[in-house]
Amino acid sequence: MENEKTIAALNTLVTINNDRIEGYETASKETEEQDLKTLFAQFSSTSQKCKQELTSEVNKLGGTVAEGTLTIGKFFRVWMDVKAALTGKDRKAILNSCEYGEDQAKETYEKVLEDDIENLNLEQQTMIKAQHTSLKADHDKVKSMRDLVSAD
Could you tell me the pTM of the whole model? Predict the structure, then answer.
């Protein structure tokens, strides 16, 4: 197991969590609906916790923690801004944007667990799988809320 590959895998996850944090801060500003603001604060908190765990692991390995966001995350935030502006802060449009961002986060975790598993020790694998489960629950909640709006 090479530290550099492990650090790179962990930093990929730090970055996607940075995307979620920024994305949900943007989403919270784009809505006046209190239930969505509360939900987005919870999701941002999930990513803050994940990021802290990942950062701790990168530091243990002597690596430099990634800063910033992925291009895909910037696209997600810009797209959300455009959608919100065009749709007059429409609940369904905001939830659709959030679900897209959640899909990206979920896929990033799945890719690391698939492609980098041999570079992660058992403790790191357990941590990442638990984080993936938390993010999947957030994804499913957004999808469920979006589907409820669609049913109205």
Answer: 0.89
CB atoms within 10 A of CB 83: 18
CA-to-CA dists, residue 113 to 15, 52, 98, 129, angstroms: 15, 19, 23, 8
CB-CB contact of 90 with 96 (8 Å) = no
Mean pLDDT of the chain: 88
Q: Which of 59, 40, 38, 37 is nearest to 48 (CA)?
A: 40
Rounded to an integer, the average pLDDT of 119-147 is: 95
Torsion of CA 125, 137, 24, 104, to 10 degrees: 60
DSSP assignments along 87-133, one per residue: HTS-HHHHHHHHHHHHHHHHHHHHHHHHHSGGGS-HHHHHHHHHHHH
Which run of H or of E encompasses 36? helix 34-60
pLDDT score, position 118: 96
